[in-house]
Amino acid sequence: MKSLLLSDPEGRGNKEAMMSYILAWTLKRASSLYAQEDSILYGYCREILFKLLEKQDDGQIVGSVETWLEWNKIDVHANVELKHDGVSEWHAILIENKVYTSTHDNQLERYRSIFYNAYKDGEFEKNLHYILIICHESPSDKLRQDCKKNEFRCIPILDLFSNDRGIDTKSDIFNEFWLREW
Asked: What is the pTM of this model?
């Protein structure tokens, strides 16, 4: 099924900005605060969060999730608290997303440096995640090299979350973005 939210036959819209907002919203919805509202939505959002963190979802409590958009020109920046047996583990996530374009002007190198310097002496330091989400099926060789050089994980959006789940959530926003074809 085609997305009504993201269909733009003239290509004038800014899908990258929309993607940033919805990524930030998705991460916030993974918080345990929302566990009772829509179990399907909550499960999907947790799945996305734990894939970004490269962690197994062992039933940890997802405590606070704070997000910022365009912080130092970084598309999405998130701080996540995981709690297991009363012990907090803090993660900081840098997400750059690309819908139409490739990286340019040493973006990944600059953003990584800014992000690392912001967290290098704190509780997040050992859990920093550098991620580039692309809307192509596979990254170009140039993109792969740029990610490798700057220690970013490059994730095609359909590898992060496949849109063929078959079960909608109660959220039109989630369904239109994550479960429909653009």
From this structure: 0.91
